Amino acid sequence: MTAPTLSQEELRLWSEWLAEEYGLHFGPERRDTLRNRLEPRRAALGLPSYEDLLFHVRFHPEREAERTRLVPHLTNNESYFCRERGTLEVLRDAVLPELRERLGAGGVLRVLSAACASGEEVYTLAILARESGLFAPGQVRITGIDLDPCALARAHAAVYGEHAFRGTDPAFRERWFRPVGDERWEVRPELREGVELRRANLVDERWWSGLPPQHVVLCRNVLIYFGDEALARAAEGLHRVLAPGGALFLGHAETLRRVGTPLQVERRPGAIFYRRSEEDA
Ligand SMILES: C[S@@+](CC[C@H](N)C(=O)[O-])C[C@H]1O[C@@H](n2cnc3c(N)ncnc32)[C@H](O)[C@@H]1O
Predict the structure, then answer these.
(1) Residues 6+ apart with CB under 8 A from 60
(2) pLDDT tens for residues 165-179?
(3) Burial class (CB in 10 A: 0-12, 13-18, 19+), 111
(4) pLDDT band for position 106 (50/70/90)?
(5) pLDDT of 49-91, one tens digit each?
(6) What is the pTM (predicted TM-score) of this model?
(7) Ligand 1 within 6 A of CB of 151
(8) How far apart are CA 238 and CA 217, in angstroms?
(9) What are the residue ranges spanned by the domains of the chain?
(10) Second-level CATH architecture of 85-275
């Protein structure tokens, strides 16, 4: 049986719902992409149309389970180690030393990778903190959150192929990973200590409420897809989750300008980031 077409009206209904629910953007130019991504779930459920599938994920008693199955088809989990190096260098050379001083000798640094995909950013941050020499093992807690449960499962497994290392030199892989065969490498166990992964939707109200205040937040290459409403909700959470004095780094192409934020902009050669002021408690 051939797959049905995704009508103009269905495209509109799906786009609105995905933007509202997850911040995911599927404009008219991505009609075929959206159809291809919905098709496996429509076929598996034996539903006649994409409108029926939408009805199912919105109103069926088991909609949460179905959403969990559908989301991995819709997200773009592209990531790699040491992505956007300029940001990481500013974090390592300017922000971490200052936070080290502020936290005092025994203080624990809390770092959040928001939209962590398969964990490349989480382990990059763990390595960065180690290589900075500023924090002893056990003094850094890193939390990775993502909408996509399959990406989080890969982050848990912490095994990566060649592609994930394209932004690094061989010494990086040699030092922090061990080969597990078949051109794949596993994160060394000591880097996984202090790492926690959990599912969260940046568009949900109060998505940050279960998290302790974070000294550093990276939220990169996800907000670029969000419309104004989703961005405003995510921005509110990014502000709330930061500890006073904490720093927020977005992707190179991302900004909160469109929605406004009480966070202050700081510029350093190589990166711009946001800071929650000490007085904003
Ligand atoms: C392109 S990856 C970015 C990964 C990493 N931050 C980086 O820059 O390499 C985007 C990630 O955002 C996640 N994502 C999309 N919408 C989300 C939402 N509403 N809440 C949480 N994560 C979301 C996707 O599942 C995907 O893993």
Answers:
(1) 66
(2) 999 999 999 999 999
(3) buried
(4) confident
(5) 999 999 999 999 999 999 999 999 999 999 999 999 999 999 9
(6) 0.96
(7) yes
(8) 8
(9) 8-74, 85-275
(10) 3-Layer(aba) Sandwich (3.40)
> What are the residues facing 185 on neighbouring strands?
160, 179
| CA 63 centroid distance within chain | 23
Q: Is the distance from the beta carbon of residue 147 to the nearest atom of ligand 1 less than 6 Å?
A: yes
- Which tokens go with 8? 């103009």
Q: How far is the CA of 62 from the centre of ligand 1 (A)?
A: 25
Q: Is 85 helix (H, G, I), strand (E, B) or coil?
A: helix
CA of 55 to the centre of ligand 1 (A): 25
- Beta carbons of 10 and 16 less than 8 angstroms apart: no
Are 238 and 225 in contact by the 8 Å Cβ rule? The answer is no
CA torsion, ordered 198, 199, 203, 207, to nearest 10 deg: -50
Query: How far out from the chain centre does Cα 212 lie?
Result: 17
Q: 62: buried, middle or exposed (CB in 10 Å: 19+, 13-18, 0-12)?
A: exposed
- Contacts of residue 153, Cβ cutoff 8 Å, sequence gap at least 6: none
Handedness of CA 102, 103, 109, 112 (dihedral sign): negative
